[in-house]
Amino acid sequence: MATRSVVPFGPQHPVLPEPIHLDLVLEDEKVVEAIPSIGFIHRGLEKLVEKKDFNEMVYVAERTCGICSFGHGYGYVDAVEHIMNIEVPERAQYLRTILFEMSRLHSHLLWLGLLADAFGFESLFMDTWRIREQILNMFEEATGGRVIFSINKIGGLRKDIPNEMLLSFVDRLDGIEKETRVAAKSFLEDSAVKSRLCGVGILTAKEAEELGCCGPMLRASGIRRDTRELGYGAYDDLDLHITTSNKGDSYARTEVRLGEIFQSIDLIKQAVKKIPDGPFDTPVKGFPNGEYMSRIEQPRGEACYYVKANGTKFVTRMRIRTPTFANIPALTKILQGCDMADVPIMIVTIDPCISCTER
Amino acid sequence: MGAINYTGKVLKNLFSKPSTKRYPEEPIKFTDRTRGHIENDMDKCVLCGVCQMRCPTGAIKVSKSEGTWAISPFSCIQCSACVDGCPKKCLSMEHEYQEPGNEKITKVFDLTEAQKERLAEQARIAAEKAAAAKAALAAKKAAEENGQNT
Ligand code: SF4
Ligand code: SF4
Question: Under CATH, which architecture does the B30-111 domain have?
Answer without folding.
Answer: 2-Layer Sandwich (3.30)
